[in-house]
Amino acid sequence: MSLSENLANALGAPRRIAVLGATGSIGCSTLDLIERNPGLFEVEALTANRSVAALAEQALRVRPRFVALGEEAGYAELKAALSGSGIEVAAGPQALIEAAERPSDFVMSGIVGAAGLPPTLAAVRRGATVGLANKETLVCAGELMTAEVSRWGATLLPVDSEHNAIFQVLDAATPEAVEKLILTASGGPFRTCSLDEMRGMKPAQAVAHPNWSMGAKISVDSATMMNKGLELIEAHHLFGFDEQRIDILVHPQSVIHSLVAYVDGSVLAQLGRPDMRTPIAYALAWPRRMSAPVEKLDLAEIATLTFEAPDALRFPALRLAREALRQGGSAPAVLNAANEVAVAAFLDDRIGFLAIAEAVERTLERYAPTPIEGLQAMFDTDSEARRCAAEIVAALA
Ligand code: NDP
Q1: Fewer CB atoms near the end CB (10 Å): N or C, the chain?
Q2: Is 158 a pocket residue for ligand 1 (Cβ < 6 Å)?
Q3: Is 59 part of any domain?
Q4: How many domains are contained in the chain?
């Protein structure tokens, strides 16, 4: 029996999938895998924010029952594009939540930024299996999310390649036997640049990641290495290790996606080509495996894997994220909100590259961390921090 027949038998019926953020990089890779395996998967719902044409085109291809747009302005156009198709169309923040609440077996959380939190939480609150790419959700509301996952019996499967790697090699039954988690980082496009060179870098240079093809925001986060800082916080919440037991190691080839060091000296790693379809396939087929159309890893051809310590001076975002995690309470949500505002300003060419981390640091300085009691408090902190960061960004422009 073939691997896919085996998987089809194990699943019983096609697994029904909702893809939040379908028009993005994670969303498109997820749909690619789904479309290559029509017997294994069916699509329940797709969402986007404002990419009406792309969402309509995807919907006509994969035939979901429901599509939702975050921004209401595109509703009429989407409705017209899908008229006669039988696909239900909705728009607005509640429509994104409805997409997550629909009865799918698996929800891919692939919206970028804190905007992904409400629909991801809605999926968790119906006890769904969630493939979590949207790391900002755990950065902003890690304690709340993990408590809700336990309360509702939901399953969070890490899709971020580093966390997916750790998930694959971590012996969760014996956390006391783990010395540390080691998150690898490519170092981004400016790994070898001086501070002076980085100062003049433009958005097009920052989004040109050497190994990964990703959306604009995460690509800039990789260039500042804030991405690794966000991942540090994400790893803390996913695996329950405090920040001193999570190291960051620069590995420019992006072949080793992360490692777990055990007390007996063993270090286990997961390796693969830098192609998000590997961790996405792992999550879609979990607890089984499915084949993915990725280039095979040829270590003899790669020949050399290299490693270096991150440079805290040129990449201050790492220190800011570590400090925010140590402080806890509202600090990670403030860090995330300020970073989203500053990255958007950089992508609009309103501030320089180095001003991103500076804006985040100045925003964090304005807030003494406070405990976050519930979702509303988190959203209040997020809005307040965005207002403050916008002022700081305007002053830096
Ligand atoms: P993209 O920018 O490529 O796509 C983002 C998706 O989210 C799009 O569908 C977009 O819709 C939608 N979206 C954007 N803003 C909103 C909003 N306010 N409300 C609702 N939907 C919105 O992002 P990526 O796919 O690169 O990243 C998605 C998430 O996955 C991020 O959290 C990222 O950190 C994480 N991740 C991504 C990886 C990658 O390889 N890309 C790797 C690991 C993690 P529209 O097209 O209409 O704008």
Answers
A1: N
A2: no
A3: yes
A4: 1
